[in-house]
Design goal:
The structure holds two protein chains of two kinds. Chain A is mostly beta strands. Helices cover about 10% and strands about 45% of the residues of chain A. In chain A, the strands form two sheets. Chain A has a three-stranded antiparallel beta sheet. The longest helix of chain A has 6 residues. By secondary structure, chain B is an all-beta fold. Chain B is about 0% helix and about 40% strand. Chain B contains one helix and 53 strands. In chain B, the strands form eleven sheets. In chain B, strands 11, 12, 13, 14, 15, 16, 17, 18, 19, 22 and 26 form an eleven-stranded mixed beta sheet that branches. Classes of the chains: A mainly beta, B mainly beta. At the A-B interface, strand 4 and strand 5 of A face strand 15 and strand 21 of B.
Chain lengths: ~55, ~725
Amino acid sequence: MITLEEGQLLLTDEAWAVELGGEYEPNALVECIKVSDPSQKCAFYALYIASGEFPE
Amino acid sequence: MTRRAAMVDLGALSTYKFDIDSYDPDKLGLGKLMIQKSGVAPSDNYAGPFPVQVQRPMEASVAVPYAFPWAMQWSYSASSRKDWIFAADVATAAVTRRLGMWEYDRISGVPTYRGFLTITFPGTSEAKTIRGLRMSYETYSTGTVAVAATAVTGTSTAWLTNRCCVGNRIGFGSTDPTQITTWYEISAMASDTGITLATTAGTIAGGTPYVIEDLRAYLNCTSVTTSLGGIYIIKGLNPAHFTAIGGTVPAATTVDNIKASYFIKDAATGTALVSFGMAFEDKVDKLNRNIWLLDTLANPVMHKHNAYAALTLTAGAATSSFLFKTGAGGAVTGTVSQLNNGRIANTAHGPGAGLDCIYFTTTTRVYRTNAVSTITNGATNWMADNMTEVPPGGVNTFAAGSGMQTLEYSAVIDKFVIASTGAAGIRSYMTQYRTDGGQFDRLLFADYKQIDQGTADSGTTPTPSQLAAPFTTWIEGGLMYAMRFGTAANVNQFYIVPIGADWEYITLSGARLVMPRIATPDAKSYRSAFANAAQIIGNATGKNLGLQPEPFRLQFRTAGITDNSGGWTLLDDTNNLSGVAGAPYIQFRAEFRMGNLLIPARILNVGVVYDDTGMSDHWQGSSNIGTSLAVKQFGFRHAVAYGSVVPRLKVELFDAESGSSLGSDDSTTQAWTWSKSTNAGGAWGAMNQTDRANADTYIRVAPTSLADNIKVRAVITEY
C-alpha cells in the first residue's frame, strides 16, 4: 500500500497534486488536479505519484 | 573525326528539387526520394534513392519493441522536409503502453529517434495489448493573438469550440508550422479566447498570427477484461512529450481535451471484445472525423466513432463518440490478423476504385468493404469482395504461404503492401487489389537472414530481410517505414526504405534523377552512354559481407533540354547510342529498381562517348595551298594514304563561332567545285579517287555560295 496525502505533488511532475489523500494499492488510479488550473483533473497510478515508477 | 568522351561526376553538384524548385538544365535534378551524398571515399560521392536506414529500438537506452508505424510528412519545402513517425509498444502485455516518435529528414536522409512516452489507461488497471495505431494531426490558426508572458488572448479565435487540447503546442508569427522557430506548450485553455502557456513567450503584439498543432494518438487495444478493449485516444500530444527517458500521459477522469488517455466505447459495457484493427477516414472538419474499429475475428463487425467528438466522461471513458455498429459481415476465410489491420484506401484501380473502402487481411485473403459512406447501422452486407493469395508467377512459382499478416496501402504507387509471417519461406507482396483470382503483382522483401543489430559487423549494409517475423509497414510519400514485429533485439528493427523509387511506379512517384546536361561540342554522332555505380556496399573482400545494390536504367535526350520539353528515350543494357545524331548537349536521367534486397543504387558518374565532326585522320587542313579567302575555297592536304582508292569524302562547313552547319557536299555528288593537285597547287585538275601520290597531294573545295564576313571551320571526313 502507498500512502498519499491530499495536495501531495507528483514526484516527477510538480504540476499535479493528489486530490484525495489515503492508502492506495500501487496500481490504483488516483485522481490528481493541476496545481495551476484545478479545473484540470486526471489520474496517475499511486506508485507513479510516489516514485515515478509504473506498476508491472 | 575523333572519338571523344564527356562525363559528369555526382556527389557535389548543384541540385534542384523537382516539385519545389525550377528546372535547371545545368544542375542535378532530384526527384522525390532522391538524394545526393558526398564523402571522403570516391564511392561516397553519389546520387540515387535515399539509402536504407535502420533504427534499433531495442538497443536504445530504454529498450522498447516498437511496431505498427504511422507516419506523416510534417514539412515539405526547400528548407525543411521532415516526416514524423510514431510507433506502438508491442512488448508483452502490461498495464502501461509506450508510444515512440522519430523524425526523418528527407534532405539529409537521416532518421532521429525523439523518444517515447508512457501511457496510463483509464479504467481497471490490467494488462493491455496494442493491436493498432493511428495518429491525427490538425492545425488551428483562425484569428490572431496577443501574448503577455504566459497569457495568450485571442481575437476571433474558437479554441475550446474547436477542441484544441491542453498539452498541444502553439507557435507565434505564422500560421505555417514549418515557419515557427519556438513552440510553447498549452497548459490551460479557459475559453475560446484564453490560453495559458507552460512557459512565458514574452510580449507579442495583438494581431499576430499563430498556429496550434493538435496531435492525438488512437490505440486499438485488447484488454484482460475484454469489455475494456477498443479505442483509446491520447489527446494533448506534442513532440516535446517524447523524450529519451520517457514522457508520461495520465488517464483521463472527467475532463476532456487535456493531455490524457480516453477510452471510447459503444456502450456502458463495451462490446469490442476482440478488436483487430482500425480504419481512419479523412476529416470532415475540426469536429468530425470517422474512425472504424474492426472487431470479432471470425465474423467481423465494425464500430463507427467520431474521433473528434466531444467526450462526456465517466472515469475517463465515453460513449458520446459512438455512432453505430454494424452487424456481422459474414465469416471470413483464413485467420484475421491483429497486427495493425485495416486501412481506408481510395484506390485508382480495382473494384474499389474511386471509393473510400476499408481493406483488411486474413492469413489467406484480403477483404474489401463497401464504400464506408454506404455502411449503415446494423448492416450485415458491408463486406464487398475479397482477394485470394496468388503469388506472382502462380503457385507453382512461389507457394501461397497462407501467412499474410499486415496490410498497408500507398496512394503514391497505388499498391498494397501485404507482409507475411515470413515463416518457412513465406513471401510478402506488393500488389494491386483484384478479385479475379489473378496473380499478385510482385514479391516484397528477400529473406537474406541478415539481422542488422547495432553490433553487427561494420562491413555489412542494412537490408530489410524478411526473417521469420512479419513487417508492419506504413508508406508515406513513397517511403516505407517497416518495423519487424518482434520483441527481442534481434527481431525488432525499424527500416526506412524508398520503396516508391522503383521505376515501375515512376509515373506516380516521380522518383528519378535528371542529370545536368553534358556538353558534346562538335558531336557528329553518339556511340554509347556509360554510368558507373557502386557495385558492392560494404565489404567487398575478406568475409564479403557487403551487398550489391539494386539496378538502375538510363534514359537520354538531345533536344528540348533547355526548357525541359524534350522527350526521353530509354536505353537498354548496352547503353548503345549508335544512330543518334550529334547535338550540342546530351542529357540523361536515371530510374531505379527496388525489388530484391531493397538496397538502392548509388550512381557515381554518367557520361557519353561520341564521334566529333573533326577532320579525317587522312587529311589536314591547308592554310595556304588550295585555300583562298578571296574566292571562298578550302584546301586540304592528303597526309596519310588510304592504301586503296580514296573513298567517298564529305566536306562540311561550320560556323566556327556557333558550331552550326553552313552546308556540305561530297566527292561523289560534287554539287560544289572539287579539284585536286599532286604538285602542291602548281596545277589543279579534276577530283578523282586515286590515292595519295606524294606529300604534295592536295584537294580544294569551293562551295556554291557562302556568306561574307563569317568565320568558317572546314572539315573533311569519309562520307
